[in-house]
Amino acid sequence: MLGNFKGALFDLDGVIVDTAKFHFLAWNRLAKELGFTFTEHHNERLKGVSRVHSLEILLDIGRISLSEEKKQLLAELKNKWYVEYITDMDANEILPGAKEYLMQLRNNGIKIALGSASKNAPMILENLKITELFDVIIDGNSTSKAKPDPEVFLLGAEKLGLAPEECIVFEDAAAGVEAGKLAGMRVVGIGSTDVLKQADYVITGLFELVG
């Protein structure tokens, strides 16, 4: 179905685990502190986007202008709240079929990388007890450019020792799908075909690929 590939690169949020609800709680809390309403519809704009860029979007929604120093403090505050929310995560939070598909790939000799904007990715993988299923972890601590820039996926392929055309990307966000395509990789979108129009193939979850 997906053809031959030697490497698989996975986004974290919305693909392996659903941390979107925890991000929403933290951003919503921050918006309330700033005196405006942040909805789940607004939250869709933050999917697959770095923390700093997400804050810029949030401030734009609230029509608030702040100094760079204040922005940095708010970004750190949001992350502090988010970390509090995810500290108690465990393996039960893994999305259906995700662990099984990762193991299936490993058993077939496919190299696996994480390609996430999250700076908390290592902690989340540890909490989920699936760190050992990844050959390479590229997160927000490893990159300087946010999706849709292809940096995270190009770096992932490089660390795996593979050419971009030998890799396939699994993403749930439009910005991530675009990043994968710009990297010269095939992309499997996880979610809605209406949102992930650039993806080569769209599924509702990794459970569809297990077997």
Q: How would you characterize this protein structure?
A:
This protein is 41% helix and 12% strand. By secondary structure, it is an alpha/beta fold. The protein folds into 2 domains: 131 residues, HAD superfamily/HAD-like (Rossmann fold, 3-Layer(aba) Sandwich), CATH 3.40.50; 67 residues, DNA polymerase, domain 1, CATH 1.10.150.240. It has a 6-stranded parallel beta sheet, sandwiched between helices. Helix 3 crosses helix 4. The radius of gyration is 17 Å and the shape is globular. The model has no long low-confidence stretch (mean pLDDT 94).
CATH superfamily of the largest domain: HAD superfamily/HAD-like
CATH topology of the largest domain: Rossmann fold
Q: What is the averaged pLDDT score? A: 94
Beta-strand percentage range? 5-15%
Approximate shape = globular
InterPro entries: B-phosphoglucomutase_hydrolase, Beta-PGM, HAD-like_sf, HAD-like_SPP, HAD-SF_hydro_IA, HAD_sf, PGP-like_dom2
Site (Important for catalytic activity and assists the phosphoryl transfer reaction to Asp8 by balancing charge and orienting the reacting groups): 116, 147
GO molecular function: beta-phosphoglucomutase activity; magnesium ion binding; sugar-phosphatase activity
EC number: 5.4.2.6
Helix-strand blueprint:
Blueprint lengths: L6 E4 L9 H15 L5 H4 L7 H11 L6 H19 L11 H10 L3 E5 L5 H8 L7 E3 L12 H10 L6 E5 L2 H9 L3 E5 L10 E3 L8
Parallel strand pairs: 1-2, 1-4, 2-3, 4-5, 5-6
EC number: 5.4.2.6
GO molecular function, one term: beta-phosphoglucomutase activity
Family: Belongs to the HAD-like hydrolase superfamily. CbbY/CbbZ/Gph/YieH family.
